[in-house]
Amino acid sequence: MAVFPFNLKCSAVFLMVASFLAAVAFAIGHGMFYQSLHGQPVLNSQPLASLKSSLHVSDQQLYISLGTFFAFLAKSSLGVSVSTTFDQFAWKSIQGERTRIDIIDDLLSVLRNGFTVANLRLWRHSPISMTLAVICWLLPVASIISPATLSVHLAPSNVYALKRIPRVDFTSANFVGFASGVVALPGEQNAWVSMYERPMTETQRVVNSVATQVNQDHAAHITENVIQAINRSWTFEEGKIPHVTRYAYLSWATETDNLVDTVPFYQKNGSDTFTQRSNQLGPKPKDPEDGSAVFSTPTKPLVGGPPLSLFVTVFPRVTEYTEYDEALKNMEKTVENSTILHCMLHNASYQANLTYVNVEQTIYVTDQTVLNSIVYITGVTNVESGRLSSNTSFVRNAQVMESLSYQSIMDAFGGLLFGSITREIDFLRKPRAGIHQSLLHTEKPTTNIISTTLMETEEMRHIQSVTRSEPDSNPFLNYWPVCILDRHPTIFGALNIYNRPNYTAKAVPETNVTITSYHSIYMYTRSILWAAYGTALGATALSVIAGVLVYFSNDGSYSTKFSTVFRVTQGAKVSTNLSMKDYSGLDPLPDHIAKAKMTIGYNPDYPVRVSSIVPLDQPRVLYPSGLCPSLGIHAF
């Protein structure tokens, strides 16, 4: 006998509603459990090891298993609710109508055999029951999707701290090479002078610059000067091979800030010959009275005057017009579409964000403000305004040393870019031999840029076809490339092993340092979990509502228990006779029974028959010809 509440008339309704509410609770619990793990780090621990040392289960395995268990409980509860509703509709569809026994068999077994869902006869006979069966079979999909909404991802973890960071010590003498001398004066202190000589080797690795485009008027002046130089390069003298020189690349430093002195070629004493400027650092300020060099003093550097500058030009059309006659006619076209950059050295105020990810550095510069210019310093002397200064050393003056360090960096920059790449076109003509031939060749480049990756840029790529680098003899091969072909100001910095972090030269405020590390964390996709559970719960809710309605229609509940089958079939009518062999109930179902039709259900017109319950010690009476009152099954 069933126990409470399954012995009630409304037991099916209670089971449907209670199972549905349990499924809702399990789904909510599943979501809350995953939400509690969202964003939490994946620990490398074994939480069950305290119970038993052999339980080598990680926390990730444990949490995913618990999530799967929640999904299993939710799916099971939904299955109970839908299958109970299915029982009500299945019994209702076969009661009171003549139905083939094989259809009844398939209908009552559809929840155990999913292949019977494809039986079209069942869909025609009981579409609602079959729809409920499909829902019941699809419920496990939600239990598959929902556990997968918890995953593991790599996420950055930031730690912020104020730290004293190393800085490049531009106030030291590590960047500049000096040539110093002392003059002994009788009765007075000695006069001394330290001349700027060259950048140190380490300075080649520290190149800070600002690259900007020149204005159009300046560019036109430069290209006109280059065209004049090309025109003057054309020679046709007796006994010499006619030739013309074209420039693919040019880089030079200016003599002064005068526009005339900023072009790459100049004429000596008004001659027709154009000579390329040979200085890689300039302009160099001079005394306006006598034109002599201007020196800094130990107390202050030069602050007035034009900034150190460098020009870089690229002429992409140099590879055109390989014939001598065509080259003469199209000299002006060789400078078309040229790229001209003017680099100037200034002090600047900026905010730099340096990011190191897997030993790769990225620099973001914001709020850049250009301040005073860096002027060329010929040297430093203790002679100031015709008098000897009491200062014996300028090394202690941070401003003077910084200016010299910046100057050496610009000098190193010029050493990398200064020079030219030219292409010569010779014309070989021997009328007697019938030879009229143009000879094209590239002169040895006088610039170190060919050994850098700048040759791979779009502006310089065309030059690779007319030149070659000599890496074995070039000191710039192992230096990092300087990308000056950027349209926006760019700041570059590099530290080598000779530069030591300096925490003492000028106290600087502590810098906010962000240390980012990556850890595995749990990520919970709430939308997918509730899309799966929401679909399953919605379909089940509709099923429960339909089950409650059919309960009132049936005026009671049904189940698939044997007692239900036993009682329902007491008044059944079968359209065939059963033999003793058929009473065994063994599979397969005989064809004559499968095709037979049966009418089952409560019928008040049925007479009360002899009880079918016969003691086991009494013999049973067989009715072979059609009537079996003890079982209440009638053949017709």
From TrEMBL:
Cleaved signal peptide residues = none
Q: Which residues cross the membrane?
A: 12-33, 62-82, 130-150, 528-552
Which regions are flagged for Polar residues bias? 272-281
Annotated segments matching region Disordered: 272-300
Query: Which keywords does this chain's UniProt record carry?
Result: Membrane, Transmembrane, Transmembrane helix
What is this protein's record name?
Answer: Unnamed protein product
